[in-house]
Amino acid sequence: MDTVAPDTETGERPQQQRRRNPLLALLLVAALLAAVGYGYWTLIYYPTTPQHAVDQFIEGIRAKDFDRVYSMVKVPAPLKVFIGSGSALKAIVERNRSAVPEIKEHRFGNSDVVGDQATVETTIKGSSAGSQTTSVVQFKLVRTNGVWLIDGQWIMAEMMKRGLGGMLMNGPD
């Protein structure tokens, strides 16, 4: 009868230690793959999507970081005459504080990408003039040099219809 003495530190027999080591290695490999996948998604893939551009635009509005907001828009030439920078946008907003609503949260719905144009359905919850609102906005984006930006012509058309605050908080007509 061949008996193997247990390990003095762990109290386990060598066979038990060998069985546990492959399981531990498998769990470590699974955790590493999950971390690499998450890192790829957040650092490489997601920043190249239209949803990320909408996220950055909305987060800029929430943070009142108008340089960031401005940088997320493909500003058409006629609009650049009036709003040539993030600081110019900030000055306009400060003169008319109700122009930009308080956005509390947003979530994405359907997205449609055709070539260098995209539409991202976004449900926005917030408040405007003291009342709680929920609206669905169909953000229009264009890809310029591989980067997704909010379509400034779409913004101009929406502002003509209902103003910036109305564009974000009143949803479609």
Flag low-confidence runs.
none
Number of E strands? 5
Q: How do the strands of the widest beta sheet line up side by side?
A: 1-5-4-3-2
Per DSSP, the total helix count is: 6
Biggest sheet details: 5 strands, mixed
Gyration radius (Cα, Å) is 26 Å
CATH topology of the domain at 49-169: Nuclear Transport Factor 2, Chain: A
Assign a percent range to the helix content: 40-55%
Which characteristics define this entry?
alpha+beta; Nuclear Transport Factor 2, Chain: A; 5-stranded mixed sheet; 5 strands; 27% strand; elongated
What does this entry look like structurally?
The chain is an alpha+beta fold and 173 residues long. The chain has a domain at 49-169: Nuclear Transport Factor 2, Chain: A. 50% of the residues lie in helices and 27% in strands. The protein has 6 helices and 5 strands; from the N terminus they run H-H-H-E-H-H-E-E-E-E-H. Strands 1-5-4-3-2 form a 5-stranded mixed sheet. Strand 2 and strand 3 (117-128) form a beta hairpin. The protein starts with 13 loop residues before the first helix and ends with a helix.
